[in-house]
């Protein structure tokens, strides 16, 4: 936990220190659970045509819930595998953990090492703390609102790249892509002719953490869920980046389209992606 302590030493607010200690302990332990199961044969269940759940999603979520509910009993929990049907119209006002126990399940099931645990805490309608832990790389990202973002104990910042032609950007494809490929492919085409490179690595929370630490310059995706982006949004913002919807309007993790960047390429990204924002696609199936 030394890397978390290094960050917490600069966090004056005792409540934030507490929130992040609990989230950090949960993410590291759950990440250990995932790493232990990684590369083994899996029990795979389908939630949809291509949307999977493995025994590791469930075991990781159990670990996170145990630690988070013991550490902060007053908080509610919105976790992907146990209560994803909960009805939240926006960021909860009550203390609420928002948990993706395994972001990158398809990767995990195929033995592709790009996956992570993502845990955020909402309070008074804002995300106030977030951690993302990628166990195979042993990368531990954390942030508290107002205190900057950190990777393995060292402060991180978004990149300085100012042009799309020099940018490495990432995206992802929603689970209904087989039925609705057109808008996703058109948005990809709009970016592919402008960016230096595009990656689709398969874990949205990690894509956001990579924007926060400057390994990527930007990221966009549609139809994500709050647990995919809540911690990552905070990391990007605390690392000096910008997060909006595809048209550049205010974002929160309960909005199903996201555009995150280092800020410098944000206008160029919104120019390319605005036509695919839900605001501009009324009447069209996305
Ligand atoms: C998925 C990943 C993927 C993104 C999907 C998400 P899961 O989360 O973040 O990169 O493209 O839209 O649902 O199902 O692996 O937790
Ligand atoms: Ca996810
Ligand atoms: Ca997941």
Q: Features of this protein?
A:
286 residues, alpha+beta, Fructose-1,6-Bisphosphatase, Chain A, domain 1, 2 domains, seven-stranded mixed β-sheet, five-stranded mixed β-sheet, 14 strands, binds D-MYO-inositol-1-phosphate, binds calcium ion
Characterization of the model:
This protein has 286 residues and is an alpha+beta fold. The protein folds into two domains: 2-156, Fructose-1,6-Bisphosphatase, Chain A, domain 1, CATH 3.30.540.10; 164-276, D-Maltodextrin-Binding Protein, domain 2. The protein has helices at 2-8, 14-37, 55-71, 80-83, 105-110, 181-192, 204-212, 226-238, 266-273, and strands at 44-46, 52-54, 76-79, 96-103, 116-123, 126-134, 139-144, 149-151, 154-156, 168-171, 197-199, 218-222, 242-244, 257-261. The strands form three sheets. Strands 3-4-5-6-7-8-9 form a seven-stranded mixed beta sheet, sandwiched between helices. A five-stranded mixed beta sheet has the order 11-10-12-14-13, sandwiched between helices. A two-stranded antiparallel ribbon has the order 1-2. The mean pLDDT is 94. The structure holds D-MYO-inositol-1-phosphate and calcium ion (2 copies). Residues 100, 103-105, 172-174, 202-204, 221, 224, 228 line the site of D-MYO-inositol-1-phosphate (IPD). One calcium ion binds at residues 57, 80, 100, 102-103, 105.
- Order of strands, main sheet, comes to 3-4-5-6-7-8-9
Class by alpha and beta content: alpha+beta
Can you count the helices?
A: 9
What hetero molecules are bound to the protein chains? D-MYO-inositol-1-phosphate, calcium ion
Largest sheet: 7 strands, mixed
Number of strands: 14
Instruction: State the helicity in percent bands.
Output: 25-40%
CATH top-level class of the largest domain: Alpha Beta
> How many discrete structural domains?
2
Mean of all residue-level pLDDT scores: 94
Portion in beta strands: 15-25%
Span of the ends, CA to CA: 43 Å
Please give the radius of gyration in angstroms. Answer: 18 Å
């Amino acid at each position: 936990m030394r890397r978390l302590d290094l960050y917490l030493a600069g966090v004056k607010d005792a409540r934030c220190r507490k929130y992040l200690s609990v989230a950090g302990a949960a993410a590291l332990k759950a990440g250990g659970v995932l790493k232990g199961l990684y590369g083994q044969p899996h029990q795979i269940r389908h939630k949809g045509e291509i949307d999977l759940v493995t025994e590791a999603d469930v075991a990781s979520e159990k670990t996170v819930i145990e630690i988070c509910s013991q550490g902060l009993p007053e908080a509610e929990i919105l976790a992907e595998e146990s209560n994803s049907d909960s009805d939240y119209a926006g960021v909860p006002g009550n203390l609420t953990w928002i948990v993706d126990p395994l972001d990158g399940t398809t990767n995990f099931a195929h033995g592709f090492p790009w996956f992570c645990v993502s845990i955020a805490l909402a309070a008074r309608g804002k995300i106030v703390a977030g951690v993302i832990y990628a166990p195979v790389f042993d990368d531990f990202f954390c942030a508290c609102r107002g205190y900057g973002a950190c990777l393995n104990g060292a402060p991180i910042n978004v990149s300085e790249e100012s042009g799309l032609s020099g940018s490495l950007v990432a995206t992802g494809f929603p689970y209904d892509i087989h039925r609705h490929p057109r808008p996703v492919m058109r948005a990809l085409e709009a970016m592919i002719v402008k960016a230096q490179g595009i990656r689709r690595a398969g874990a949205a929370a990690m894509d956001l953490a990579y924007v926060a630490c400057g390994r990527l310059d930007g990221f966009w995706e549609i139809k994500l869920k709050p647990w995919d982006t809540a911690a990552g949004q905070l990391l990007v913002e605390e690392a000096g980046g910008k997060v909006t919807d595809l048209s550049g309007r205010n974002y929160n993790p309960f909005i199903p389209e996201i555009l995150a960047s280092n800020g410098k390429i944000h206008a160029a990204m919104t120019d390319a992606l605005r036509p695919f924002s839900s605001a501009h696609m009324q009447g069209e199936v996305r």
